[in-house]
Amino acid sequence: MSRQPRVPWQVKFVALVLIWGSSFLLMKVGLESLSAVQISALRIVSGAAVITALLFLGGGRLPTGARVWGHLLVCGFFLATLPFTLFALSETRITSALAGIGNAATPIATVLATLAILPGERATGRRLVAVGVGFLGVVTIMQPWTATDRPDLVGFSMALVGGASYGIGWTYNRRFLSGVDLGGLSQPAATLLTGLVLMVPVVLGWALLQPEGVASTWSYATPDTGRPAWLPLLCVLVLGLVGTGFAYMLQFDVVRGAGPVIGSTITYLIPVVSVLLGVLVLGEHLGAAQLVGFAIVLGAAFVINRRPRTPEAVVVREREQAASTSG
After folding, report:
1. What is the DSSP string of 135-175?
2. Residue 94 and residue 269 in contact, taking contact as beta carbons nearer than 8 Å
């Protein structure tokens, strides 16, 4: 008889939604004292430290082979370096609630990436229609027909690309690394480590463009919001240690316990949490068009992730959903 997990996967599922949904709030507070690049770097450093330590303490090991690590570099770029940096940069221009909505682009991008990267794969008509509807929702949020009430287009575009990069990264991972994972935390740790390597030139390039030069890497401004000076740094460390390191363990446990189809629904619940926290905690505001667009994008993501009914479709769908979960 197999041993039942001490904590049910349903509890881990809720915890994961809350952790990843709150990441946008944590980034917003962190920006009061740190730059977007600093936040991204600290997030990857602390997350990689946690998950790598847990890997080795559990007797695991990292993947081997130059070809494997070459593919891991691509995954590290799309699953860590690029989205972490873009989401933090987006919140310098838009609210945390709106940045969280950008995360809903993940399942939409996964459909398109699957068609482009995976040979022989095809999308159902229902999912393609949902992609088109989701695009209309994005247009509704951006409101290109007005120049007054629309959000900052550059900032929201950064959030959209950040969300889409998860879909590209997971699909690439499925295409080139599905057969080399050593199980457990091996591949997640390797992905964060490659993301950390790629983050080094980003940080150095950013620092050289600052007036203080390399010294700007460890600069820290006092918040002008009346909050304690240590709070922004604490939020970023929580973002890395819990939201990036610990959350990876929860993600794998949920997929193992409930399957990739259920695990993928986290994708469209994250923006709900980010919007609620942004409005209730930070006092942010979403306009009517943004709320309507959010509902459209959320509905499209739900249709894309909906469980198929036929046994054959379930098999195909579960293979696809293994590449579409994100954090």
Report:
1. HHHHHHHH-TT-SSSSPPHHHHHHHHHHHHHHHHHHHHHHH
2. no
Number of helices and strands in the chain (H, E): 16, 0
What single letter denotes the amino acid at residue 294?
F
Q: What's the domain count of the chain? A: 1
In a domain, 13, yes or no: no
Q: Is 79 a member of any domain?
A: yes
- In angstroms, the CA 82 to CA 164 distance is 10
Model confidence pLDDT, tens digit, residues 162-202:
999 988 998 898 889 877 767 678 888 999 999 999 999 99
Burial of residue 297 (CB within 10 Å: 0-12, 13-18, 19+) is buried
> Which string of b and e fits 73-90 if b means at least 16 CB within 10 Å?
bbbbbbbbbbbbbbbbbb
pTM of the predicted model, to two decimals? 0.87
- Structural domain that includes position 167: 21-321
Domain-embedded: residue 7: no
Calpha distance 16→266 (Å, rounded) = 8
174 within a domain of the structure (yes/no): yes
